Amino acid sequence: MGRIIAVHSYKGGTGKTLMAINLATALVQRGKKVCLLDLDFRAPSLYAVLKADGSEYWLNDYLNGVCEIKRVLVDSTEKSGLNGGRLLLGLANPNTEAIRDMTAKDRKWEMRALGRLLALKNSLLNDMELDYIIFDTSPGLQYSSINAIVSADVVLVVTTQDTSDVLGTRRMIQELYDLFDKKAALLLNKALLSSSSFEKEMKEIAVQYEKTYNLPVLEVIPCFCDVLKAGGTFIFSKEKPDHPFTKLLEEIATKIEKS
Amino acid sequence: MSRTLEKTEARLLEKIKESLDKLNEKMEVFIELQKSEQKGGLVAGMPDLPETLDVMTLLSLPDHLRKTAIAICKLGEATADETAEHTKRARAVESGYLNQLVLMGYLKKERRGRKAYFYVEK
């Protein structure tokens, strides 16, 4: 049976979407069937990178109970230039009115939305036999991100060395993941390395952060100017297969497959 | 002759077990009711005022009840046996927690034949 991975973080701009897209890509290129869902309804972003079109429905519609999940998903394998497996996309509606609508939902609606997210395990992992569902969530503690976390099997927490991010992430782990008994692991992104012996320093940082959070650090990803320069206009790991960022993402995919 | 007797006995035992099960469940509700009364008025106006079991509510529940409530969210609807299988806790324990969640207004309980099913009212 496949697994649901939620990519989450305390603050915005940590690199959740970048990680979610490139992790999905790495898994697809290993022959896996992956469904990538944009659950950041306040600031949808997958549509901008993957430029998927052709679907008549958004994820918003699925959560509103308007349609089945199959009507939302678009097969983006070919368009994204990927080989091996399959990449299915479910996008959040980026129109301002849709964003406003999603922020004004009541508790009853959020309860039903949780039910619909939980049902994906059956419809996508069981019936469609997908290997992974990856949730690109909204940051922090709000309904849509907590619903995603409760529905996921594993949470990948993207964090940076920023102090407010560190403090907030630590609280979030204790007051959210622990309460829901969630299996979680950290991705330390945009790490600033000073020495020339990168690998040694990355290991030291990993040990330090594992102590801080009491969670395994899956990978330390240095701050790469090339990644920032790309500005999310293309799938980085696909365009730059030999870049160290891509290599690290491949290692993350290997660890996830083994876990 | 003796076989018919055995059958009658078996049926009788089955009926006794059924009644005991029902009695047991009523007792559990009774115990929970008493507990909530002691805590000061969980009961007042409760069952006819359904509460919303959203994630923020889940977060506010005590650990032992949260586990049971999440199990029902995941299973859709379930008996105490099925819930216990999911949470890996004893059936009697789960039955108590489920009935408590019903009393608190978060879950609904429906009897179908010999089994009681618990679910979240959507």
Structural class of chain A: alpha/beta
- CATH topology title of chain A: Rossmann fold
Total DSSP helices of chain B:
5
Mean pLDDT rating of chain A: 92
Structural class of chain B: mainly alpha
| Highest-level CATH class of chain B | Mainly Alpha
CATH architectural arrangement of chain B: Orthogonal Bundle
Order of SSEs of chain A: EHEHHEEHHEHEHEHEHHH
N-C termini distance of chain B? 53 Å
Q: Could you give a short account of the major beta sheet of chain B? A: 3 strands, antiparallel
Shape of chain B: elongated
Fraction of residues in helix of chain A? 40-55%
Our estimate of the beta-strand percent of chain B is 5-15%
Task: Give the N-terminus to C-terminus distance of chain A in angstroms.
Answer: 13 Å
The CATH superfamily name of chain B is Winged helix-like DNA-binding domain superfamily/Winged helix DNA-binding domain
Give a written overview of the molecule.
The complex is a heterodimer of chains A (259) and B (122). Chain A is α/β, with parallel strands linked by helices and 259 residues long. Chain A has a single domain, classed as Rossmann fold. Chain A has eleven helices and eight strands. An eight-stranded mixed β-sheet of chain A has the order 3-4-2-5-1-6-7-8, with helices on both faces. In chain A, helix 5 (107-127) packs parallel to helix 6. Chain A is globular. By secondary structure, chain B is mainly alpha-helical. Chain B is 64% helix and 10% strand. Chain B is built from five helices and three strands. Chain B has a three-stranded antiparallel β-sheet. In chain B, helix 4 packs across helix 5. Chain B is elongated and about 60 Å long. Chains A and B meet through helix 5 and helix 6 of A and helix 2 and helix 3 of B.
